[in-house]
Specification:
Elements (H helix, E strand, L loop, with lengths): L1 E4 L3 E9 L21 E3 L2 E3 L7 H17 L5 E6 L13 H6 L11 E3 L8 E4 L1 E10 L3 E2 L9 H19 L4 H5 L7 E9 L6 E2 L2 E10 L5 H17 L26 E6 L3 H6 L3 E2 L5 H14 L5 E3 L2
Parallel strand pairs: 2-5, 2-6, 7-15
Antiparallel strand pairs: 1-5, 3-4, 7-14, 8-12, 8-13, 9-11, 10-12
Helix pairs in contact: 3-5
């Protein structure tokens, strides 16, 4: 739902987006009050969605209703976009669809405020998110004779260790991150692991480690994709250079009767580059009049203002 209040200049806009009309689920057993009933205590409202995000919907509705009733003459045009679905990723709705359809192209002509949950200070930057999977393929064999197999679990762990080392060398913290008060720099880490199911006395023939990269907005996601892909190609070409564990561990085998003679690594990204770029990070213009306005307003209410950035 897009609501526009036209100013003297119809082209220059102040956009307010991000407030969504769906809410997260609520378990009454974990609440001190009934989440499905509005409870008013002093100047506080309690209930599911009051913060994320119906309180903001109510706030912006009140603002736009006041503009409609009082009809002040403003220099710029005010545009509010309410999002039908944000929590559940419903198809066909949300801010991404509005962008794809050109529904809010005119918001490129001025500052944009993303008004969502209850953070008490202005957020001026976010990291991008790139999810990935690394699959190592080895050779199944009895664990009592490990020199005749290729342990995909060890191969995968050593490979991701090497890939992480290279990533942190090529994409270190930047001075700009300090300017934006980022809580941490770019990171790459595994978050899940899976291997073929078999007996405990077997070397697993395949193992997959998955994780994500939280990328500072001062690095290009396309460059990261290209660089990491090259890491994996280099390791595949030189698989025998990876560290092994113990005297019998190895990633290459010899012999005519060996069906798998070399361990392999396969790296995949969750989505193509176009999808990855949809989740690139953002660094706001620190000289933006929009940022200065919200800094001044926050300081007036709270006594001070400390803009921050986050890799979440």
């Amino acid at each position: 739902l897009k609501i526009t209040y036209y100013g003297e200049n119809r082209e220059e806009t102040i956009g307010i987006i991000g407030s969504h009309m769906d809410v997260v689920p609520a378990n009454p057993e974990t609440w001190e009050r009934d989440p499905f009933t509005m409870t008013v205590e002093g100047d506080r409202l309690y209930g599911r969605g009051t913060t994320d995000c119906l309180g903001h919907v109510a706030l912006l509705t009140t603002i736009m209703a006041n503009l409609g009733e009082k009809k002040p003459k403003l220099k710029k045009t005010i545009v509010v976009l309410f999002i039908a679905g944000e929590e559940g990723g419903e198809p066909g709705v949300g801010v991404d669809v509005c962008v794809e359809k050109g529904f809010i192209d005119n918001l490129k002509n001025g500052p944009v405020f993303w008004v969502d949950s209850a953070d008490s200070q202005p957020c001026v930057g976010t990291a991008g998110a790139l999810q990935w999977h690394l699959k190592a393929t080895g050779r199944l064999f009895h664990s009592g004779l490990p020199h005749k197999g290729i342990n995909s679990l060890e191969l995968c762990m050593e490979a991701i260790n090497e890939i992480q080392k290279r990533f942190y060398t090529d994409f270190p913290p930047t001075e700009d991150e300090a300017k934006y008060n980022f809580s941490c720099p770019s990171t790459m880490k595994p978050t899940q692991i899976e291997c073929s199911k078999g007996a405990l006395n077997q070397l697993p023939p395949w193992t997959t480690v998955s994780g994500d990269i939280r990328l500072s907005p001062f690095y290009d996601a396309g460059k990261v994709v290209e660089t990491v892909d090259n890491y994996v190609k280099d390791l595949n070409d030189n698989i025998e250079t990876l560290p092994t564990r113990g005297p019998m561990s190895k990633y290459t085998l010899e012999g005519e009767d060996v069906d798998v003679k070399r361990g392999t690594l396969e790296w995949t990204w969750a989505g193509d580059l176009a999808e990855i770029r949809h989740l690139e990070g953002i660094a706001c213009d620190l000289k933006s009049p929009g940022l200065q306005a919200i800094v001044d307003a926050t300081a007036a209410v709270k006594g001070d203002c400390k803009p921050y950035a986050i890799t979440g």
